Amino acid sequence: MPTRIILAEDDSVIRMDLREELQRQGYLVVGDVGDGQSAINLARELRPDLVIMDIRMPELDGIEAARALTSERLAPVVLLTAFSDDELIERAREAGVVNYITKPLRQSDLKPAIEIALARFQEFREIESQVKTLEDQLATRKVVEKAKGVLMEKYKLTEQEAFRRIQKLSMNNRKSMREVAEAILLAEEVNQNQ
Fold it and tell me: Which of 82, 145, 160, 175 gives 179 a disulfide partner, CB atoms 3.0 to 4.6 angstroms apart?
């Protein structure tokens, strides 16, 4: 399945030429717009694989549009611009832009920029997923530790016995250990409030 791309360029001639070149290289241009706000709206609607946009556009510049796309995790952004001063590069970096191409565009620059941007975005998503998994595991461990402490105190169990009890309740009730631990803590809280 071809990579789905949205173009955001205020110059309609450049936009048309870029669309043709992307299609020639095997990419699918699912939409093109002339300003940053329209790029955001279209990306929200179409969920493209990538957005290529100019920096200097009406309504909302490409860097601010990229910031929104990045923060919403809609799509990676490649900036295509005639400007390469340090301030713009720094703003683009801070906005989460994954690649930056300067005009005049050489056709041979497109494919590497796109493929690297897609790869970096995929790596970012994988890292983000790993972080979420680790955060969930840590939260589970904290809850299970608290529940073990409650069981150890209430029933005079060893740490291992308390853990086994939570584990057994988890298996018998087909609930995660976290759910069982949360139930134990909730029951203890209710008992203390009575």
Answer: 175
DSSP string, 60-111: S-HHHHHHHHHHTT---EEEEES---HHHHHHHHHHT--EEEESSPPHHHHH
Ordered by start, the domain boundaries in the chain are: 4-105, 130-193
Tokens encoding 166: 């939570």
Q: In angstroms, how far is the first alpha carbon of the chain from the final one?
A: 61
- List the structure tokens of 62: 């490409």
- Range 130-193: architecture per CATH: Orthogonal Bundle (1.10)
Q: Maximum distance among all alpha carbons in the chain?
A: 78
Place of tokens 């309740």: 169
Structural Rg of the chain based on CA atoms: 26
Overall fold of domain 4-105: Rossmann fold (3.40.50)
Q: Are 144 and 166 in contact (CB under 8 A)?
A: yes
- pLDDT per residue as tens digits for the range 61-73: 999 999 999 999 9
| Domain 4-105 and domain 130-193 have a common topology | no
Q: How many residues does the chain have?
A: 194
Any residues with CB less than 8 A from the CB of 49 and at least 6 apart, and which? 3, 4, 5, 75, 76, 118
For residue 193, what pLDDT band results from cuts at 50, 70 and 90? Answer: confident
pTM of the entire predicted model: 0.78
